[in-house]
User: Fold this.
Amino acid sequence: MVEVVSVSTIIHTLFNVLLSHRYIASLLSILLWPIYPRRTVRLLFPSPSSSEPTATIVCATVHPSPNFLSSIDSWLANLPDEIIIVTAPPAHNQQRISDLLSSLPHHPPPSTKIIVLAAKAANKRQQLALGFRRSTSEVTVIADDDTTWSPSTLRTLLSPFTHLPRLGAVFPEVQIRPSSSGRVFGIWEELARVRLFGDAIDGRISMLLDGGVFCGSGTTAAYRGAILKDEAFQRFFTQEKAFGPKRENKKLNAGDDQTLTRWLCREGWDVLVLPHFDYGVVGGRERGLRRGEVATTMRDSWRHFGQVLRWSRSDWLANLRAVGPGKEGRVAWRRQPFTAWTRVAWCLGSFTFVVEFLRVWDGRASGNAGWIFRVNDRWEVLAHIVLSRLLRYLPFLLCHYRGIKALVVAVLFLGYLYVQQGVKVWALLTLGDRMLRDAPSISRPNDRVQKDAPFKWKFADEYAK
Assistant:
């Protein structure tokens, strides 16, 4: 006689599977993430047997961020061979950016050439592709217009290329710096810092286990120039389409970082995540930016979720293609099985709040369905939910917050995670048409560029070194 499984048993079983996955992944993260930096320390310094490669910085922008001049100034302190800034119509944009560059706090060093180009349309992928083609260096570094570097960042990004001949890209762990002049983090910036710590853990663990990453840094990343100039890559990068009806008219604008990451995996290139050795306050007056540091700003308001929505759409599209039945999926599962699984887990994890809600709503003791976690009331269920969600972030919360502030940030971040899941679901439902116009380079038409660049004192004397 076939035994009918009750709905309650199904809910309890799914909840147990969810908790088991979260606890195992969190404990694995806490144990392994401190090990990764020790594996990469030697790569932070150039190989004595190889010369340092030349480097070009490519930045795509239409309406420059308020920190644009600060960003350019910090890049110049790294002495790149070229800086290529690619804007888009209308025609006066090119002249406007050239005029902005004339007001830089410091004159560019003689060894660095600054080029301003204009693409045919305000499409970030098209703008970047133009910059890739014009680059004449061995390594091309993509940088957002609100990204600030320490004076040693470029050298740190280039060093691994002198050690590893099959290395295709280097991704730094990006930090948040305060957007306010008072060097104090707002609440949205605090939450973004905790989220970035979780992303850094994911990158380190996947690098240790199979050498892959879920998504390379879109804020700053260094790539071999030959990869980006390859005609097959240029077609793949600029012609990728969105899902949905009338797909032939939906060339993607956003999601360039995910596309680059997938191409590297598909073509057999290795990648490297450069660890940030101290998750301290970025941009403090006493400490400044550390060796190899990359810092960016985050919207300190609820509008921050607009960025999360854009990223989520890009992640959905990349995940559905990267682990599918085609050639790309087969290569991903063969070369980087753990990273491929994290893509699947990301998709499934977007709906785990449903399982949590059903388990709390059911409220009964686990009984025979509690084969691992036997809970007897709703309070125990809620305690497991909170602990399983926050366990992987505890090292960051305990190291950077004290007393009641740690508790407040933890509670707010728990709510942030639920809102983020809701944003992921909405991103899936609106995956089609919105992918066309989502792009960071056209999202700030009303911001004014600050002529007095923050942190300029840090880079004042670096050009002579």
